[in-house]
Specification:
Aminopeptidase; alpha+beta; globular; 8 strands
Length: 159
């Protein structure tokens, strides 16, 4: 049975947990980019939003998004394995999408490793669609995806 969770902004006390979750759950198999120092700097930036999901006082998941003038880029999204399939990831993404819409941003981009089809499927279920890779990134192990928040998805009707 899933427990209720709360979403709020990350604080300095969350830096180490976010960095370790990123290393272990998002960045496994690649060099550790989101170290505690990098996460700490991101928390201090005015163009970055970092919500965390908590069950009681324990961090169950987090996300990190950079907001630009017209687009936002979801750099990190992680949910602890024991807390998955409880709506935490979906709620974090919805919370961020609502936040960037209020800021006037209508497109959210994310890069998903091609070796993670379940993550690609998760984002597809939220309205994200694969985007063409830039010519200089054709061999990249990442699939660029985007969600246009201003345009509802086109649904093919069967007549």
């Amino acid at each position: 049975m899933s427990q209720p969770f709360d979403i709020g902004l990350a604080a300095d006390r969350d830096v180490d947990s976010i960095a370790v979750m990123s290393r272990d759950l998002v960045e496994s198999g690649v060099d550790w980019f989101w170290t505690p120092n990098r996460v700490r700097r991101a928390l201090r930036r005015t163009d970055t939003i970092v919500p965390v999901a908590r069950v009681g006082s324990a961090m169950a998941g987090f996300a990190l998004i950079r907001v630009g003038f017209e687009e936002a880029h979801l750099d990190l999204l992680a949910v602890r394995p024991g807390r998955r399939r409880q709506g935490i990831g979906r709620t974090l993404v919805a919370w961020l999408e609502e936040s960037v819409l209020v800021a006037g941003v209508g497109v959210v981009r994310v890069r998903v490793r091609t070796s993670r089809p379940a993550v690609q499927s998760f984002f597809r279920s939220l309205g994200y669609v694969p985007r063409p890779k830039p010519e200089d990134a054709k061999d990249s192990p990442e699939l660029p995806m985007a969600h246009d928040l201003w345009c509802p998805p086109v649904v093919d009707e069967v007549r």
